[in-house]
Amino acid sequence: MSPIAITESIAPTPTSRPKAVLKAWKPVATSAVVKKIRNPIREIIAGIDLGGAAATGAKPFLNLGLGDPSVYGNFPPPKEALDAIEESLRSGKSDGYPDSVGYAVAREAVANYFDEGEGGAWRVKKEDVVMTHGASGALEMAFSVLADETKNVLFPKPLFTAYETMITATGASIRYYDLLPESNWEVDLNFYAGMAWTVSGPRPASADAVRVQGKFNRGVFTPYASVAGTSPVVILGAVSKRWLAPGWRLGWVILHDPLNVLAEVREGLGKWAFRIQGPNSTMQRALPALLANTPEAFFTHAMDDLADVGQQLFDRLAKIPGLQPLLPQGAMYLMCGGLTTANFPAFANDVELVRALLSEEKMLILPGSCFRLEGFLRFVTTVPLPTLMEACDRLEAFCRRHAA
Question: Cα–chain-centroid distance for residue 330?
Fold first, then answer.
């Protein structure tokens, strides 16, 4: 028997099969929920060419649109907080999965931080706390647990329009009420005149006991849970702005529920926490030391600096024709009005004015329309003061060209 060459085939030739007809891929659709989500700020400033503004002209581009205190490095977080995070990272205790509602030590730290103690109006224990991905995560959790297509949700104007984005997915309807700039942002009570509902209940004994927290230009801050008595309250918070580090993404939801009427809500928060699996372990383990060790001087110095910048910015803007600045009150933002067609007839609205300002002066300031407050500009007071003063010089030149 002769050997078989490796080039020979001893297998039968397979029967040829018809070539399969491949169908073309169709575009992959997203869910109905995602289709409802919008980003109002992006929609309003769509078409503004920031890249072109930065690349052209002799003036450097000034972007004053970022509401983030960490951008310029002039408002750093406290050293004690950084030490707490480093210790947590190196401890070996924050490498695993945390409980979905948060580590017990983190929740207890939040409870101890806000609890008013024996005889206080606001008592908090760790079972009242759920840890979240920042304040935005706390808002999204609260909206998702409380709201659905059968509910109306009251939002103020102005507002951070991410609230609208978050509520969209729940199917709830938004009802707006106005805050009055000329009256220190008090609620416009005319909104309630035609509404077929009333708010009633016993006046808590603690309602007149104002708790001072040292908010600049306003004097007092009263946590609602301190005066709510037995009324149920859902409180949201985070380290984001108070510790000047929004990127740390650590927040919380606290329930004030003396009558246990939020039992189903408490269970719902736990379920939603399981769905999103909570913030990262390192930050949670760091939270007890972060809350306990940050000196009060850090907060008072930050507020003093913000108050000083806000005052100087207010004084400078008040000298510009057509503008009506409002002094900040406990905030790192300044709202400046006066952007009406009467004052600036060349522009139909604040968005048109901002686009022209970018084109002519190479600077971006967000229009009030981004926050449902037409006719305003929003300044961020964590921007270094020399940069803000340069922006005011450019804005004044622009206004003198265009003001009526």
Answer: 16
